[in-house]
Amino acid sequence: MTETRTTDVNGIIDFLPHHVIIGQTNIPDNCNGRKGFGVALLAATNIAEYIHLTNSSEQIQTIWATCNKRLFAKGSETTLCAVYIQPGRELESQLAHLGDEIQQALTDTPHLIVCGEFNAHIGNLR
Questions:
Q1: From CA 17, how far away is CA 79, in angstroms rounded?
Q2: Separation CA 121–CA 126 (nearest Å)
Q3: Dist. CA 74–CA 56, nearest whole Å
Q4: What average pLDDT does the structure give for the chain?
Q5: Bridge-based pairing state of the strands 19-24 and 39-44
Q6: Sign of the C-alpha dihedral, residues 29, 33, 37, 41?
Q7: Contact (CB, 8 A) for 82 and 115
Q8: pLDDT in tens, 103-126
Q9: Is residue 101 classed as helix, strand or coil in its secondary structure?
């Protein structure tokens, strides 16, 4: 998972020759190149066949994928979520929306991995 800052993630793949793009969010044209936009899910080519894009959410920049049960040696599929929470943009609303998406994902499988950049801050540290 990576913050891309671009809709054209092929430039990222140029530096990761043994990886493929599983999914990516689209960035509004006026935000291309700016911090806080874009998320992509990449996988090594030797495991990419086990990972399939299932959904993406532009509202809070999430990519959802299903991982074949053989990838994690589980009895059922595992859902993977790559999330990017934009700093300073209605954090409570973004987290509530993410919580709704997580609840929905858990109805499909008991195995869930959520990873990403949550831009969490504790106290007044800067």
A1: 25
A2: 8
A3: 24
A4: 80
A5: antiparallel
A6: positive
A7: yes
A8: 988 988 889 999 888 776 655 545
A9: helix
